[in-house]
Amino acid sequence: MFLHVKEAKYLCDYVIWLRFNDGALGEIDLQNELDGEMFAPLKDKRKFRRFRVDPELETIVWDNGADLAPEFLYENMKVLA
């Protein structure tokens, strides 16, 4: 099964709530993932919180072109019961 982010919401700091196409729900803290040319600008929380779910890529993306693979998000999120 291919994983797709269906919904995402900003919670606080660098934490995002996620819902996947298989029904899994979870939260991921991306604070330690914001390195490199594409992600360093997202250390500014005002920029970080402006992500969206791209309907074609089916994952979260930012205006500067940064995105994260849904598999990475799924494997690293804290699953909510």
Descriptive overview:
With 81 residues, the chain is of the alpha+beta class. The chain has one domain (5-79): NE0471 N-terminal domain-like, CATH 3.30.2020. Helices cover 19% and strands 33% of the residues. The protein is built from 3 helices and 6 strands. The chain has helices at residues 36-39, 45-48, 70-76; strands at residues 5-12, 15-20, 25-29, 52-54, 59-61, 78-79. The strands form 2 sheets. A 4-stranded antiparallel beta sheet has the order 1-2-3-6, covered by helices on one side. A two-stranded antiparallel sheet has the order 4-5.
Order of helices and strands: EEEHHEEHE
CATH topology: NE0471 N-terminal domain-like
- How are the strands ordered across the major sheet? 1-2-3-6
The count of strands amounts to: 6
Instruction: Calculate the terminal CA-CA distance, rounded to whole Å.
Output: 21 Å
The CATH superfamily appears as NE0471-like N-terminal domain
Beta-sheet strand percentage?
A: 25-35%
Mean pLDDT: 97
Our count of helices gives 3
User: What's the CATH architecture name?
Assistant: 2-Layer Sandwich
Tell me the number of structural domains: 1
> Quick one: overall form?
globular
Structural class by SSE content: alpha+beta
Low-confidence stretches: none
Percent in helix = 10-25%
Gyration radius from CA atoms, angstroms: 12 Å
Q: What about the largest sheet? A: 4 strands, antiparallel
Provide a brief overview of the structure.
This protein is α+β, with helices and mostly antiparallel strands and 81 residues long. The chain has 3 helices and 6 strands.
